[in-house]
Amino acid sequence: ELKVWTTPDFEEYATM
Amino acid sequence: MTPRLRRGVRLTYDRTRQTYDRTRQTHVVLFPEGVLVPNATATAVLELCDGERSIPDIAAALGERYAGVREDDVGDVLARLVDREVVEWA
Lengths: 16, 90
Hints:
Chain A has strands at 3-4, 10-14. By secondary structure, chain A is mostly beta strands. Chain B has helices spanning 15-20, 40-47, 55-62, 71-83; strands at residues 3-5, 10-13, 27-31, 34-38, 66-67, 87-89.
């Protein structure tokens, strides 16, 4: 029932 | 230390991407200088940044949903988000 942990990450964009 | 989203920062849902690709569960973080697109685990971390939970608390809560949660990963991504001025320590 558990999801596999993956390294938290994010994409960043300069700038519903 | 307990992390929380800074004033003016919002974690929201990108309905446009969801409309065109329903396999992607995409959230976006809106802040004055830009937009961040976090992956699923970073989104899960951000959702728990309420100014009440510590990093160990967040890791423990994530452990109920994910196998193999690493507290260091939580601390590392929060440090990066603090650098981007998206998160602050309460």
